[in-house]
Amino acid sequence: MSVLNELTAALSSGAIDVVDLTTPLSGDTPILNLPQPLANTVGLSLTPVSNFDDAGPAWAWNDVTVGEHAGTHLDAPVHWITGKDGKSVDQIEPHRLVGPAVVIDKTAAVAQDPDFLLEPEHFEQWQQEHGSFPENCWVIFRTGWSARGGNAADFMNADDAGPHTPGVSAAGAKWLAGNASISGFGVETVGIDAGQAATLDPMFPVHSFLLGADKYGVTSLRNVDRLPVTGATLVVAPLPIVGGTGSPSRVYALVDSTAGTASEQGA
């Protein structure tokens, strides 16, 4: 039996679960809201073309208006000034969008401090416990933040100082960008940077370091609590928008149904 036949059989038998990590995309899905005078993207809106009516008696379809960076979405290098000469979404090699997932679980720390930042020592400690990051991997930051996704105010968690959501320090972002094994970084929050990232040096360091190093981000993930520390395979499926700086994406994980989750494995 070939490797692909074995995979198909495992999917059919339930030995491998397909876990959907995507936030459903609607007009109510929280999106990033920048302060004035900065411009903002739009969320999702549907305009009916026909709905089993005179305009189309046997079919229904809609025109879709949506920002590239709405809901669960991919950030491509050209999204940021450090990667402006890099790849747009359509130019990212498909194999970079499928790879091993490694989960760093800081749910308990984030519950105590919503401004919690990952530092280089957190990545190094993870590797001491679980081994080196595998080739072409996606680092997934588990925070429990997706539990807030049903309420936009709770999800953004903003006050006069701006949003308070977990992320990565400048040193941590530089460490991620410098690790040759990493293809991307995924989060449960609205963006790949912390809510207070505008106060860091450089500002928005995950965007700055990762996208400038031809690495990618994916945001607004859900069901991360169903992933093991290691062993899952991530599949990120953006629209191949020509020249696109990002794209709403469906994100899946292939998970051994006998494996425990990150929290059960003591991540």
UniProtKB/TrEMBL annotation:
The keyword Hydrolase appears for this protein: yes
Keywords assigned by UniProt, alphabetized: Hydrolase
Xref: InterPro entries: KFase/CYL (IPR007325), KFase_sf (IPR037175)
The species this protein was found in: Arthrobacter ramosus
Enzyme class of the recorded protein, top EC level: hydrolase
EC code(s) of this entry: 3.5.-.-
Protein name according to UniProt: Cyclase family protein
Coiled coil (UniProt feature): none
Any one GO molecular function term: hydrolase activity
